[in-house]
Write a structure and sequence with these properties.
This protein is an alpha+beta fold. The chain contains twelve helices and twelve strands. The chain has helices at 2-25, 31-67, 82-118, 137-143, 147-151, 154-165, 210-245, 252-285, 296-313, 333-350, 403-408, 415-425, and strands at 123-127, 132-135, 171-177, 183-191, 200-208, 292-294, 317-321, 329-331, 356-364, 374-381, 429-434, 440-447. The strands form three sheets. It has a five-stranded antiparallel sheet, sandwiched between helices. Strand 4 (183-191) and strand 5 (200-208) form a beta hairpin. The chain binds adenosine-5'-diphosphate and magnesium ion.
């Protein structure tokens, strides 16, 4: 500062000093007058130099503050020279803009961080050397300590190699993990060009597709099963049509017999299609619970009356128990009728001929059922029952303990699958209890209509 002021002083006074000296030497100015004038010039110059040096100091401080937006804004006096004042104000404006931009940048960075961290799919950032630079929460939960093992999967390693070589198009790879649990993973790799400041070169998203793949397999199985179930009666119909056109053309007794079988097969196809349609209807509405209040007891009585003739065919007695009045449930009457029909149909079909089927409708709360008002519908028979090993799979589509027996009594293998989906749609519960040789009990719990709290 002092040096700056001295420099300025010398620069300002040099020319007048030389002029005064020349005038004294030429005898145009007395030495005394020259000295006095010089002193006046030096005094003025010194003052100006001081002001100027101070202004430069202030501007420099303003510049330093602008370069470091973190620094707290301190109040500086404005420079004294007008041009310096303008300069200082420009610097202040620039510094404010820089600070705003800085704040915006850190906000953006933080948002990015949050988005990546909360992304539902596991995400990793790898360096050029394949080292893991960053992981998000999903990646840490899904793979925890196995990330290195995952990265060693040959298919993924190849894909990473390809992605590192070719940075234009995203690379995808699919592979299966066997441990700790079997998983189907789809990896998407995106190369970063230029790399991130921390050296991140590759974004790797590992999406778990296990559920989707299982669903796809289930759908494919379902279509194959349904086609197979339809094809069997259809093949038999085609066979009999050929026979009736050919060898049996002039054989009235055979023709009558064949037409009887054909009617049975056509009826079987009809039942199968009806069940397939019910199943898809229930599935389509499964996400929206029904809203009609329904009296489960009245519904059951109606269904029992309908089933009576079929039960009589096998000399089976159906008994209804439970209180006359039960709380209403929120339901879909047609679908609940179908539940009862399918359960009673099974009880009558698979129960002991000459035996007894018991139906219970009663309000329940707590115990093995949810701790809210509900109604239990139970259908028990005294037939051969079902072995434990079959119980968990009974509600799968087309699953039958004894295919031949189910077919011979007109079963489609879809009855319990429909029951399960209807119960799910009603937000209820289905429990199957059975022991071989000791009959079977099917329990359906449905939530009761919640009474609005009445002021007392
Ligand atoms: N009450 C029952 N007693 C014994 N087995 C039963 C009973 N109900 C169902 N099952 C078994 O569960 C299987 C699936 O039942 P369901 O889905 O209704 O198909 P379907 O009756 O058309 O064969 C039946 O094939 C049968 O083996
Ligand atoms: Mg059935």
């Amino acid at each position: 500062m002092l040096r700056l002021a001295l420099g300025a002083l010398v620069a300002i006074t040099l020319a007048p000093t030389l002029v005064f000296a020349a005038l004294v030497i030429a005898g145009q100015l007395s030495p005394l007058a020259a000295l006095v004038s010089l002193a006046a010039v030096i005094a003025g110059a010194a003052g100006l130099a001081m002001i100027w040096a101070e202004d430069v100091r202030l501007v420099r401080r303003a510049l330093r503050a602008a370069a470091d937006p973190q620094a707290a804004p301190n109040s500086r006096p404005p420079p004294s020279l007008p041009q310096m004042g303008l300069l200082s104000r420009d610097i202040d404006r620039l510094s404010r803009q820089l600070a705003e931009r800085d704040a915006m940048l850190s906000r953006l960075l933080k948002t990015d961080e949050i988005i990546i961290e909360t992304l539902p799919d596991p995400l990793l950032v790898l360096g050029e050397d394949r080292a893991v630079k960053r992981t998000n929460r999903a990646a840490r939960t899904a793979f925890d300590n196995d990330i290195q093992a995952v990265l060693r999967q040959p298919i993924l390693r190849d894909a990473i190699g390809r992605a590192l070589k070719n940075d234009a198009t995203p690379v995808q790879a699919e592979f299966a993990l066997a441990v700790p649990i079997p998983r189907d993973i789809v990896a998407t790799l995106l190369t970063l060009d230029p790399p991130l400041p921390d050296g991140g070169r590759l974004i790797l998203v590992l999406s778990d597709r296990t559920r989707e793949r299982a669903l796809e397999r289930m759908r494919a199985d379902f279509v194959a099963n349904a086609s197979h179930e339809l094809r069997t009666p259809l093949a038999s119909l085609i066979g009999f049509i050929d026979t009736l056109r050919g060898p049996a053309r002039d054989d009235p007794p055979a023709r009558d017999r064949f037409l009887g079988i054909m009617a049975e097969q056509a009826e079987r196809m009809n039942r199968l299609i009806a069940d397939l349609l019910s199943l898809s209807r229930v599935e389509l509405t499964e996400h929206q619970p029904p809203r009609e209040p329904i009296d489960p007891r009245a519904l059951t009585e109606r269904m029992l009356a309908e089933m009576e003739p079929r039960a009589l065919d096998r000399q089976i007695r159906i008994e209804l128990s439970g209180p006359e009045a039960v709380p209403p449930v929120l339901g879909d009457a047609d679908q609940l009728m179908q539940v009862l029909q399918n359960l009673l149909d099974n009880a009558v079909k698979y129960g002991k001929s000459g035996g007894r089927v018991r139906v219970l409708v009663e309000p329940v709360q707590a115990g093995r059922w949810p701790n809210r008002p509900g109604v239990l519908l139970a259908v028990s028979d005294d037939g051969p029952g079902i072995a434990k090993s079959h119980l968990p799979r009974l509600t799968e589509r087309f699953y039958r303990v004894d295919k031949g027996r189910s077919r011979s009594v007109g079963g489609t293998g879809l009855g319990l699958a429909i029951v399960k989906h209807v119960v799910n749609r009603h937000r209820g519960q289905l429990v199957i209890e059975s022991e071989e040789g000791k009959g079977a009990t099917f329990l359906v719990w449905l939530p009761a209509v919640q009474e609005p709290a009445t002021p007392s």
